[in-house]
Every structure is written in C-alpha cells, then in structure tokens.
C-alpha cells in the first residue's frame, strides 16, 4: 500500500491533481481525524459539525475518527455513534499531548492513511471562512505533497521564542498533513509543562520571568490576546478573562498551548514540510489545477488569496 501511494504522489507532481483524479478510482484519500477535546460541555456540537463539513465539502474522503478526550482518564477506550473511537488523554499539554496520544493509539494503522487531520473541538470558532475551502481536490493535492495545510495567521510584528524568530503560524485547530510528516516530527509537544518554571514568574502582575526566552513583543501579544484588548489587529479572543492569582494557572496553561501552536510551523518547515494557507491553496487549485512545486512564502500566499486578501504592503515588516 505504501509503495502504491508513493507512486500516486509522484504521478500527481508530474501531471497535476486534475489529471490524476481522472486516473484514480472514485474513492478519495483515507483521512484519519484526531479530534482533541476536554469533555463536551463547551463545544457539544463539535463532532456533528465536523461530520457535516466533511459530508458537504469533502464527501470523497474515506474517514476514521479518533476523539482524544482529555477529561477522560488515560487508558479509556470507548465508542461513539458513527464508528468514532473515543480515548482518554492526560491533558498535560492540552490538544498537543492529546494528538500525541491519538497517534500512539493509531500507530499500527497510521501508514494506511493518506492524510492525518488534526482538529480541536474549537475548530468552528473565530474566523472560519477557510474551512469551506477544503474539498476533495485540495485533499488529493495535500496527500501527494510534503505540505501542512490550514489557516495561516500572523502577528503585526515579529516575535521570538527560544531563539526562533517568526511572524506567522498555522492555526492548529484544523490542519491536514501526510502521516509521514508526523512521524518525522515526533511529539507535537514543543513546550511541555516541565518548562513552566523557566517561563513564568508566578506573579499575575508580571506573569513572565524576566529571563524567559520570549521576546517582549510576544509577551505583549499573548497577554493582550488572553486578558487584554487583543493583539492590535482588530480581533479579540472569545474567552478573555481577568488575570488574577486564581486564574494564573489557566493563563500559564493556555500560554503553553499558544507556544506549542507557534512552534509547530517552524518545526515542520525545518524538516522540509511546507506550510500552505488553505484559502491560497484553494485559489491556486481553482486557477491552475495544481499547486506550484515550490510553495511560496507566507506573505505571498496571503496576498495571493482570492478573498480575505492581505496585501504585501500590509505585511511589509521584517520577514521571518
């Protein structure tokens, strides 16, 4: 199966997805969805909404869904309607350790899938227009390439974390990528809970340690997003809270999730996996039938969208 899939991927690069679809059987790529959640109280409709999205936009996908519920104990394995498997997680690094648990659970069958779909129960919040740009053609293209596809977000100015300077990241609540990239990556947890003492002061007035390897611009962005008026880009988080001694633990845990999301993109790029913005990729596929051999930098992608365009002038600060 693996050799046949490599042959299909090579053919796709040569002839393009549109031509490849005429040569393939009607069935689409096999997709393993790993949905991370913490109970069902906050986002009770996440799983049904995900199913509706696939049925409407990606009906050709042959799916298997594993829900990793961090509110359930490790070792729990149960069933949900529609053939969904539900397992427990340890919640050590929120969705990132949950996805690790899902990958361990599905390790024996992982190479039988063309794509792994990482998702969280909050996938249908904030900006969601990019979700409807996923379709069978885009899945087929991503399955044939070294690409992680999702929504690219960016900061108004560069930030630095552990010496890694960046402005953009792939929103981790809904990402498609080949399983080989996850095998290369290893753990999805870049910043584990063991680093909390090195990052945080324990003081809600000044929550980061002075010597923490996080730039001032990133500290401002994180605190603005979680407990302030946003990042200065006209968007505010839906669950902002006051930072007090009582909420400090949640602030630190949520910050770790933000740091893990930020670090995922440079780690993927470092191993040769390109980051593709969904709206840009759908735009290019509609116009040309395939993505270019070399995926352009994120600023060019955002400027090349057919909607929600972010011009090069808008992102003309120092490049990451």
Can you put this structure into words, describing what you see?
The chain has 320 residues and is α/β, with parallel strands linked by helices. The protein has 2 domains: 2-188 and 273-303, Alpha-Beta Complex (Spore Coat Polysaccharide Biosynthesis Protein SpsA, Chain A), CATH 3.90.550; 193-259, no CATH class. The protein is built from 11 helices and 10 strands. It has helices at residues 2-15, 17-23, 46-57, 94-105, 136-143, 179-185, 196-199, 216-227, 248-270, 278-288, 298-303; strands spanning 30-37, 62-69, 77-80, 84-88, 115-120, 147-150, 152-161, 164-170, 174-177, 274-277. A 6-stranded mixed β-sheet has the order 3-4-2-1-5-9. It has a two-stranded parallel sheet with strand order 6-10. Helix 1 (2-15) packs across helix 2. The longest helix is centred in the C-terminal third of the chain and has 23 residues, at 248-270. It is globular. Mean pLDDT is 91; it is low at 7-25.
The total strand number stands at: 10
Strand content: 15-25%
Q: What number is the mean pLDDT? A: 91
> What is the end-to-end distance?
38 Å
The percentage helix is 25-40%
Helix and strand run: HHEHEEEHEHEEEEHHHHEHH
* CATH domain fold name of the largest domain: Spore Coat Polysaccharide Biosynthesis Protein SpsA, Chain A
Count of folded domains: 2
- What coarse outline follows from CA principal-axis ratios? globular
What profile does the largest beta sheet have? 6 strands, mixed
Radius of gyration: 20 Å
- How many helices? The count is 11
Contiguous runs where pLDDT drops below 50 for at least 5 residues: 7-25
Write out the strand line-up for the largest beta sheet, numbering strands in chain order: 3-4-2-1-5-9
